[in-house]
Amino acid sequence: MSLTYTLALFSALTLSAFCSPSVPYPFLPASLVDLGYAKHVPTYINTTTSGQRVAIYQNIRFANAPTGNRRFRTPDTKLPHVDAIQDGRLPWQSTDCIASAPGYIPFPGLNGTTWGREDCLFLDVYVPEGVRPGDDVPVLHNFHGGAYSFGNKEMFFNPMGLFDLMHKQNGGKFIVVANNYRMGVSGFTWADGEDLDGNVGMLDCLAAARWTATHIHKFGGHGKHVTVIGQSAGAGMIYHMMVLNGGKGKSLPFQQAFISSPAAPQRRNAKARQRELFNNVLEAANCTTLACLRSAPESTLLRVNDRLINQMPSETGGGTLGPVMGFGPAPDGKLIPDIPSALIRRGCMHKELKRLVVGTMALEGKETSHDVGMPGYFPTMVRQVMPTAGNATIQAILDQYYHPGFEKELAWDWTTDAVFACNAYNLANGLPDKTMRYIMSTPPAVHGQDLSYYFYVDGKQTPVSDSELALAFQAKLLALVRGEDMAWPAYSRDKRIYNITGGFEATTMPLELRERCDMLDRFVFDPTNGA
């Protein structure tokens, strides 16, 4: 995420959820929700700028603590019954999953630190005043970003502006859900042949979405009218969910998706590198076996997470953090049998979704890539994705990307495509008649900028260069959530998109970007390049 926007987003989208007018919610019988395994009352009422009151039910457990023998396993959602009424009132960050934010991540107070705990599989539910069971209002479910290494269910996220606009438009209602998930060592440590599960951080999000599909009617929501939304790592996990089990088996627990900047480096033959990463975790924990790692205290996981993410140089090439290939989703040969782009090309994907919005920023790679020492460093960047790429492959890619005098842009454009834009391109090509595609080129057009537009609150809390554009963006998102016409052309065979700049400009996918992504896919699919 860019230096320009992360500071504003961190303070606005994270803190405004708590700094806007909030009061403890007095107990009212009508506000109590019985989930069967626990009874919850709202933690706070927040009020939007137009006076819309929203009850926030915080820290609802959706899976058991992934500790002990549950560590590194698929989330256990068989929850025990709790008698006491829960109000979710817990100290800030006390339910965060273990997280590490490297020093170069520009978040004052968090950068360079490690925090959190293993017992963290909780979610929040936002319910506007007047919504009752049986209303069957639509639902928006958010998966947060953070390079698969840091963040929480409140970070980079404040839906109060959306509630405000929906209220102003037609008095309509909808419910919002946001969840935590395991990150870093806790969420993405696995190795073939070991007694653990792969990609459990992503499976946490899937479990949270299934919780929503099952329980949201008790708050007044519709469990079969769910739109998931994610940016960066959150979007990357939705992207991988689209190919779970090669598109076979149980349907996804949501019907629509808004996917912004899907961070998913293409690592096809991941097992050897996952094993190397697993060995790094063992060494950092002073362990030689999984049994040792599973029995280690929580403090050891915090220390290991800090060492591998904060104290070691990242070798991933973008999208994830840590040594080797970093911590993030990768093919495990089981739930994710191959990289999404390969499965999508073969038609092995979930096609039951009704609509998708898939977007990227024009300059995703600016300030998210290593842009020093170009073009000399460029072969290293390419081999972080394709380790055995030969000189001929490197030269072919360089010929496509490099324009003398634009050395930094070489790094930016490669990272934009390899980590973000080509994922969006491949997904849109897989479901062309259901996908609405955008590229946001509103200056500075950097990674994370669109967050402040579709989660816009006001000019003070979420400053943007064009508030009218932010409201127009939000109106389209709300039309998606409601299941209404978005006035947005389908991507289709013509590869139609919106270029979001001063407005929504109808155009087609730039030919140069198509050619670059097609070339990247060819090289990634070629086994001689080791992707």
UniProtKB/TrEMBL annotation:
Annotated Carboxylesterase type B domain residues: 48-367
Signal peptide location: 1-19
EC code(s) of this entry: 3.1.1.-
GO molecular function: hydrolase activity
This protein's UniProt keywords: Hydrolase, Signal
Enzyme class: hydrolase
UniProt xrefs under PANTHER family: CARBOXYLESTERASE (PTHR11559)
Family that this chain belongs to: Belongs to the type-B carboxylesterase/lipase family.
Protein name: Carboxylic ester hydrolase
